[in-house]
Input
Amino acid sequence: MSFRVLVIPEDPTYNGYILQPIVERMLAELGKPSARVRMLTNPKLNGYAHAVSAIRGDLVERYRHFPLWLFLPDGDRAKGLGPLESELAEKSVHLFCCAAQPEVEAWLLAGHRDDLPISWADVRQHPRLKEDVFEPFLRQFGDPRSVGEGRAQLTRETLSNYRGLLSVCPELAELEDRLRVFLAENG
Output
């Protein structure tokens, strides 16, 4: 049976098109190319507080059978992730949290830095990244006719330089390191 991972986004509506390919690629790089990555859509989460409440609540009973959970929220709201991981470990759930700086959309943008109107350093600190940078970028380079408005395709383009993504998004490099250790210990 292949390795199964539950990915918990703040909101799967659009973030799933970014997170799914990134997690699948990361696992493939770590020797798990057949891993089954499931984006949590039931319940459909809506925001950071709702996601944390669900993780602490009924998700444990509903999704305990997944050997690994990844909670990948926007970093501009994330807090208390270490204690959340510890709390779930006490319930025998392996949860790794990785907050995107400042938001999940930055991970997609990492592969398109030459097409951005601001520097990468400014992207990583932008207080309204989604509204002021990502949405105009998506209107210009995305595809409004495709599912996710082109997010999946743009993310795949970013992943064509996977190591480049990790070099400019150190939180993803740290997640990969943690996953490498976990997989070495748990197969």
In short: The chain has one domain: 4-186. The mean pLDDT is 95. The chain is about 50% helix and 10% strand.
